Amino acid sequence: MILARHRLVGVTFTLTMLLYVDRIAISAGKSAVAQQFALSDTQFGWVLSAFALGYALFQVPAGMFVDRFGPRLALTLVVGAWSLFTGLTGLAWSLASLLLFRLLFGFAEAGTFPICARAFYAWLPVGERGLAQGINLSGSRLGAAFALPLVAWLLLVIGWHMAFLALAAVGVVWAAGWCLWFRNTPEEHRGVSPAERDYIAANRGVIRQTSEPMPLRKLLSLPNIWLLMGQYFASNFTFFFCLTWLFPYLQRTYHLDPVATGFYSALPLLGGALGNWFGGALVDALYRRGHGLASRRLPAMSGFSLAIAGIIASLLCSTPLAAVLCLSAAMFGSDMTVSCSWAFAIDIGRARSGAVSGAMNMAGNLGSFLTSLAFPYLALATGSTMSFFAVGALLNALAIFLWSRARPVLPASPGTVVPA
What we know:
Elements: H1 4-28, H2 30-37, H3 41-57, H4 59-69, H5 71-89, H6 95-109, H7 112-123, H8 129-181, H9 194-203, H10 216-219, H11 225-244, H12 246-254, H13 258-288, H14 292-314, H15 320-349, H16 353-382, H17 386-404
């Protein structure tokens, strides 16, 4: 029998797939969009970074909103709003309108992962949150991987304008379904059995709805918060390259057609999805065996080490397949760290998990913002893409040091998890 809390993880998995299909569509459509508006690479970099900037800046406000009003209302509004701006992207008539719609699209998407973190705090026992975060976040990688060849094909069939309008319609349907099905706590949901409700309540820690938002000054004074933000900045720098610039980079470097480029570009994102699952399972396995600190540190430090190796190895490759396999290993390692990060944010934030995870995701997406600009500008300044990859490797090394200082605030390890 599928338990209600497992259905929640499945539903949020479909959400993160949709989120990244909508997000990566602009990269798959780069050629058509850039041709229509006569955009240079640096101008297109600003189109990508407009989204990342809006997404970063609205993380903390969105997290505070969900802490106060709950995930049901918050996620309904978020998905509805981002679907609106997805559709408007397809109606853009100039570079200025495109920049505006991508900025607003970023604002609208910002709350998604903090809202999911807050929902998981209410619905999941501590010992299940690592894998749940891994599954949830793997949806983003699978959605992006699926979108690259699909959207490339869709653009050829119906054009980039209609493709964005079609994606917007799917989002509106999802938002309506979420509002009808979800409730803020399992105690409010008729589909949760008494046995499952009692089990969740006994193993999740204290749950309460907060009526007052956490002041930003207090949020930034929390133990570990700067460490959490710094390491997530580094992981997003690696990830966002694969999400945005990898497609045009491979197409230009290896002279590939759009559909072939889409399949090659999908491989690192599939590696990231596997990394999320593996990292999340490792987090929970270590925690259940009583290794609370190691359950956060070990997967993260190992993952960042693998990311460094994959990035450096990709520079030595002469074929697209070899390069993307090395970058797939880098993405696997980078995404091993993601479940640790979100579990750590819940460890610190608890009833304020929305605000804390929002602060972390804000820092991470400032990394995304800089990635969008660093790739074209560093290539322009140095005449080579090697400098960009060198910066990515150095940031991953910094993240390893930051994790060595991590001190999560964990409940006592349960040792053996009692089945619901």
